[in-house]
Amino acid sequence: MEVKVLNVSGKETGAKVQLPESVFGIEPNDHAIYLDVKQFLANQRQGTHKSKQRNEIAGSTRKLYKQKGTGGARAGSVKSPLFNGGGRVFGPQPRDYSFKLNKKLKALARKSALTYKAQDNSILVLEDFNFDSIKTKTYIQMQADLNVTNDKTLLVLAGVENNNVYLSSRNLKKTKVISVEQLNTYDVLNAGKLLLTAGAVKTLEEALAK
């Protein structure tokens, strides 16, 4: 798939980039995407949720009233889960939600997500660029020139040599800037438009076209 290369002003540079079929034109694997996204979201969870069990409640352990003859159900202490303020039965406890996936499966998921974006014509390729200074206004102008102001965008850079592009975008909603090393399936699918620099396309091919 051949794509025209644009500059930050949204104009064609005359150059073209070939999106490799081995990365942007495979047979998508939906189950691989599901597993990779599930792992990404699970790994974001802190797992610090906690409720007190019966043995952790502060209070008296005396029996509230005699076992028989009251006409009501038997009851122990106020720590019983049956009473307001008592312990919770089978409540949440701290745990680790993360799990591992094979590298080949994660690579397949990323390639599948990139293929879907290519099929939807949601990929724009930009020439490699840097910002001389950190200015959010400059990034906003670039989005306007590329006609992606109202879209949720993901800009993928070849590397992090110049941090000004990232710093200029981090205060903007619906905008995310990452390097190729940080690329994940969730971010690709979550973005409406995928912006790739020419260098990022080459790096992706080297990393995933195996």
TrEMBL record:
One GO-annotated biological process of the protein: translation
Keywords: Ribonucleoprotein, Ribosomal protein, RNA-binding, rRNA-binding
GO cellular component: ribonucleoprotein complex; ribosome
GO molecular function: rRNA binding; structural constituent of ribosome
Pfam families per UniProt: Ribosomal_L4
Subunit structure comment from the entry: Part of the 50S ribosomal subunit.
NCBIfam families tied to this protein: rplD_bact
Protein name, UniProt field: Large ribosomal subunit protein uL4
Gene label: rplD
